[in-house]
Amino acid sequence: MTTNEKIAKIRELMKRDQVQALIIPSGDPHMSEYFSDHWRTGTYISGFTGEAGTWVITTEISGLWTDGRFYVQAQNQLAGTEVVLFRASEPDCPSYTQYLHDTLPENSVVALNGKLFNVDQINQMKDLFTDKDISIDITKDYGNDIWEDRPKEEFTPVYYLDEKYSGKTAAQKITEVREALAESGCDALVVSRLDNTNWLFNVRALDVPTSPLATSYGFISKDSAVLFLSLSCLSEEAKETLSKNGICVKEYEEIYSYLENLNTQATVLCDEKEVNYMLYNAMEKNHNLMLVPGTSPIPMMKAIKNETEIANTYTAYLKDGCAEAEFFGWLFEALENGETLTEWDCSEKIASFRAAQGNYVSESFTAIMAYRDNAAMMHYAPTPDNCKKLERAHLFLNDSGGQYYEGTTDTTRTFALGEISAQERRDFTTSLKGVIALSRQRFLAGSTGSDLDAICRGQVWRDGLNYRCGTGHGVGYFLNVHEAPPNFRDRTIALEEGMFITIEPGVYTEGSHGVRTENSVVVRKDIETEYGQFYRFETFTVVPIDTDCLDLALMNDEEIQWLNDYHKHVYEKVSPLVSERARKWLEKKTQPISR
Description:
By secondary structure, the chain is an alpha+beta fold. Helix content is 35%, strand content 21%. The protein is globular, with a radius of gyration of 25 Å.
């Protein structure tokens, strides 16, 4: 069926059930950014493959709401269908819930799958819809009704992550969570997000593409710790280790009946942004449970890495630096030899170089290998049938990373494949100046990401430009490559020692080019004065930055010195560990520069 035919089929089911609108989110029951193909209903219907989007189907219109990272991609992939693109990042664009409120008649029914929305989302919808008596049916998944060959959920072997990688036992983490719960006046917590359950219980698997996660739920109380997952995928060794850490294991889907039938009284901290609405319903039915809205302590605990995780992550980025050097050494030799290469060839090749590194597990996200105007799509990814051929001119962007037992990596570099325009050169230099400015910035304890954002973003603002994405994101430890809460937009969460975050400004010009330079850093203590404790960033990434793209007239002496020092560090760390071809490329690309 075509996209329009699938939409028509869904409208038939809506008419049968007297439903006026259907909402299909981009996500799974764990509120994940990355998830198995089983939950990609919106992609199945529309053909849009971006990582973030919400689809709305009414009797009158089909709409996709997505943010600025995906405008170009969505416009291209939705062409020829009836789906209307709503540019959610734009100030004049209504939210999908506001749109439904404003356009649906009174007493309408909005249908959705309650497992795919958190409690906060449903409560906000209920409040918004009250004045028009619009009701919400949380039992519908029409995509499942028309998706005949829908992929099954993935369950893969689950293992316990040893303390030489995690830095703490699961028992230690559970004790810390219990202490945090006691401070909040609660004695129990449902853990729903996959990175939270995997971090807390020190388990890993490959249930989610590019994230080493076991599909699971958790429940912590004063005297119990229960992990719900696929028992058939759990080895006896892992089960024994979990047991030694005081953890009971049960089947994945038992979480709902377990919460409904729990016969001991508990005050449960309910993180309404984490728990899906079906789980909330199960707890509400149990009179033994008193639900208290609040924020789970786990994300902040997880975000502040321990010294073992920090030391290991330096190792992971060194491995990644070797893989990147091998890749670029190969790429430029092949181009010089006149070989025909595509973006897809590059994505395959860099994966092979990462796989050659020890303790490599997978990519940390689908590699973005983008030449010329494809790089203007922030989250573009080539396929064998849809990719550009590289030429000896203009810019090539490589945004990729790996999952290693020692950590999760994420690096972006933009290189000139030949002659570039004056605008490409200016945009490259401007965005690099943002990286340098923020990397060098000392900041006072208590500073939030929002406090620091303009230090980086201001470099492109000077040219009247902006990028429709964050300046950076938190990074997990052998978990999700995007990890909350650290970022450079939040006005409430202070950056603390041990947090991992990326610095990645860019310039994206539709139809022409895209530029991004991305380093990953860790927050460290710096000087302490009469004004308090100051912090700084230490850089993990050891990959050269293309000096052939620079407009040196735009750079000052301090910026040039920072780049020369950085390149000296890169060469010293990486060159002894790579092939002769990669070493020669490194030597060429790390030469000091001057005006």
